[in-house]
Each structure stands twice: as structure tokens, then as C-alpha cells.
Amino acid sequence: MNNIDSPKSMLSNLFGFSIGPAFSALIGFISVPISSWLVRPEEFGISSMYSLFVSLGYVLVSFGMDHAFIREYNGTKEKHDLFTNVILFPLLFSFVLAALILSNYEKVTEAVFSYSSFLLGFLLSLGIALTVINNFFSFLLRMQENAKAYSTKIVINRTVYLICLLLFLLFYKKSGESIIHSFYKKA
Q: Is the pTM above the cut of 0.85?
């Protein structure tokens, strides 16, 4: 743990933790106009519905365990056991949800995207599980006060996302599905 009692250390931590989100915002500032220029507006609905469904799926499977982890982290000596215990249930439940989605992919993707697609059902399932893993590891880095690793993770994720987004939109197809595919190349 860092010594957060000194003002210099606090400012250093604050700066270290803010680099990643600031860079992420810059990448978003660059990627949104580019993707808006390359993709028809109605195609954005597909990626927006995907993001919404994955976010709701994460809320459903996490059951607040992420908040419990943050609340209990500093009060326990067994930090590894705490992390294992809080990630286990959401991860297992995301696999159960994935099985439900995949066994009913036609109905789920028809309801979410207005057409049936096994690939999109699979990507929804994968997205929820990867969001669980990504968020819990981000929380772990933040609780360990590892600002450099936390910001580096965010910068790498967003840079890879931007590169993949451009490659998919320029060389694969200009669609909402390409935006969804680029989410996975950063994970």
C-alpha cells in the first residue's frame, strides 16, 4: 500500500488514477465522430442495444458483490480469499445467464436486435462474463492503490479498441456488428 498520508503521495495517486480515464475520454472523443462518419445512424442502435443489454446483465449477475468487495477490502487480511469469494458467484451466474441466452438465442436476439443471430447471442453472453472479469480486476487494482497498473490497463484497452474499431469499420463492414466485434479485441 502507498502512504496516502502525505499530500504529495495523495496528489501523485490522484494524478496516476486520472490518466487512464482522461485518455479514455480522449479516445472516445476521437472514436465517436469517426464511427459516426463510417456507420449509418440506424446501425448504432445495434451497438447501443448491445451495450445496454451487457450493462443490465452485469448488474443482474453481480448482485452488488463489487460494492461488497470495495466495502470489505480494507477490513480484511485475507484479500485473496475476499476477491475469490466475491468474483465467484457473479462469474458462475454469468455462465448460467450465458447458457440461458444461448439456449434461447433466437428469442433473445430478436427481442434485443430485431433479428435472430447466434453470433450476437454468443457475443452478449461473452460480453457479460468479460464485463464481470474486467470490472472486478479494475476494482482490485484500485483497492490495491496501483494507479499505474489501473491507468495502463485503461489506456491499453481503449487504444486497442480504437485500432480494432477502425480496422473493422474500414476493412470488414461498416455496421453496428463491427462496433460490437471491436469490443472483444480489447478484452
A: no
